[in-house]
Design brief:
It is built from three helices and seven strands; from the N terminus they run E-H-E-E-E-E-E-H-H-E. By secondary structure, the protein is an alpha+beta fold. Strands 1, 2, 3, 4, 5, 6 and 7 form a seven-stranded antiparallel β-sheet that branches. The longest helix has 29 residues, at about 135-165. The chain is elongated, with a radius of gyration of 20 Å. The termini are far apart.
Length: about 180
């Protein structure tokens, strides 16, 4: 494995209220593909408890920039105490989830992802010198673009969640069985 560098560490979005989780997942997937990332879904769990539904979803988009560098995101969505509710959207009654969600985004820059320079210790040393001094300007540019893309993703998710705040909740579950 090459050199993995954390660029954005635990960018967190917290939201409480009505949300359509399927649309949220589709939005993240579509945004990743729009930016040229390949998408891999790593987790998709749903656990039913007395308090509500607990959801854990994790996606790992990645994008090869050059033969030497690659972007990676780890996007984790946690839903706590989710309940199905009826809401009014464009004068139509639809079912969505309501509860507390937390979205955590990590961004990584992976260099030498094919491990060409990991075969011998002298090659690892040369790779480190290459990364620190020769290729430094390119690496910093890659990092800045990854931070920009991550901030754009965060802003896009916040806009989507802000849209859900304007839903009118018609009915809430009184008691779960």
């Amino acid at each position: 494995m090459g050199n993995l560098k954390i660029i954005v560490d635990h960018e967190t979005i917290e939201y409480s209220g009505p949300v359509n989780m399927k649309d949220l997942f589709r939005h993240i997937d579509a945004f990743s593909k729009e930016k040229g990332f390949d998408f891999k879904q790593e987790k998709d769990f749903e656990h039913h408890t007395e308090e509500g539904i607990q959801i854990e979803w994790q996606g790992a988009p990645w994008k090869k920039i050059t033969d030497y560098a690659q972007y990676m995101w780890k996007i984790r969505v946690l839903g706590h105490n989710m309940h199905k509710v009826d809401v009014l959207q464009d004068k139509k009654k639809i079912k969505v989830e309501e509860g507390k969600i937390e979205i955590v985004i990590d961004a990584f820059l992976l260099t030498d992802y094919d491990s060409y320079w990991d075969t011998r210790p002298i090659f690892q040393f040369i790779r480190t010198m290459y990364d620190k001094f020769i290729y430094k300007a390119y690496t910093e540019n890659f990092e800045q673009r990854l931070v920009h893309d991550t901030n754009t993703l965060t802003h896009s998710i916040k806009q989507l969640l802000n849209f859900y705040k304007h839903y009118t909740v018609l009915s809430r579950p009184t008691q779960l069985q």
